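Chapter review: from sequence to fold.
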Amino acid sequence: EKTKDVVLRREMKTKVGDKLDKKKLEEDRKRLLNLQLFNRVEFNPMQADDGVILLIIVAERWFLFPYPIFFFNEHEWKKVSYGAGIVHQNFRGMDIQIDGAFWLGYNPGISLYYSNPWIGARNFFTKIKIFSNKVKSKSLEYNRFDETHHGIDVTFGRRWGYHTYLA
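The token string follows.
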């Protein structure tokens, strides 16, 4: 319902016009399951006048997940941080992941994450994370002060095959 056909086609080694190979189809089925977009993937080959039609049946899983954040800073109960986040794991039906989170408490912060595993016909991919948080100083030499950390992590790369990446 949500996932675009192009996502299925780009992951499969079986292409239109190929001879039906059950071993290759099983590899394709596992590859589609490894996307973590589907609970179930089935292939149903049907005989046609001019060859075989491959019917792909998938059961999509939920894509939008809220999650709690709770952690201890410096392994102390008095230094707790807490918050929430939400992740969408199939944005626009293209296997794009977006995630936003915030937390309050001892060391408050916020983060935004974007991951696109397939950009254009040349198989490029990107991941971007933007974050900001405060960290209380642990220094015994100086008066207590808070550090503010802002940052952007950017990964850009290319996928040459099913298992070969360079970023």
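Two observations follow directly from the output. The beta strands are 38-48, 51-60, 64-72, 80-91, 96-105, 109-119, 124-136, 146-159, 165-166. The mean pLDDT is 92.
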